[in-house]
Amino acid sequence: MPPFSIRRAIPADAPAIAAVHTQSWRETYTGLLPTDFLASATDEQARERREQSWRAVLTEQREAVFVAAQEQAVMAQVRATGGNRLALWVLGANPARRWYATQGAREAGQKVEGELLEIRMVWDRL
């Protein structure tokens, strides 16, 4: 396997993060969300909005965001930098929600944005 690295994201990472974010929605929510809604949530305009949003989050350092080349390795990086807690938001309809729970996450709140119910998944101790 090629080497990987994990680092804190910087504003220049916003385009790549937005592209992955948009593509993951297309792949995960096809068949789970209405086709028209998913199309508008993953088109080029949506990707551009996500890029702007990620750029703002990263510029203002509102959250610690990491980019990683290997799944689940981010937990080790959070621990290595003194962190002991991790959280993410997932759509209520996302089948991966159950997988996160099997990995030790718990549901810790929800929010509704338009038609979408999002669930906050939290690992209290890494």
Automatic annotation (TrEMBL):
UniProt keyword list: Transferase
Tell me a Gene Ontology molecular-function term this record carries: transferase activity
Q: Which SUPFAM superfamilies match?
A: Acyl-CoA N-acyltransferases (Nat)
InterPro entries attached here?
Acyl_CoA_acyltransferase
**Entries under Gene3D superfamilies matching the protein:** 3.40.630.30
Keyword Transferase annotated:
yes
- Report what the protein is called: Acetyltransferase, putative
The species this protein belongs to is Deinococcus proteolyticus (strain ATCC 35074 / DSM 20540 / JCM 6276 / NBRC 101906 / NCIMB 13154 / VKM Ac-1939 / CCM 2703 / MRP)
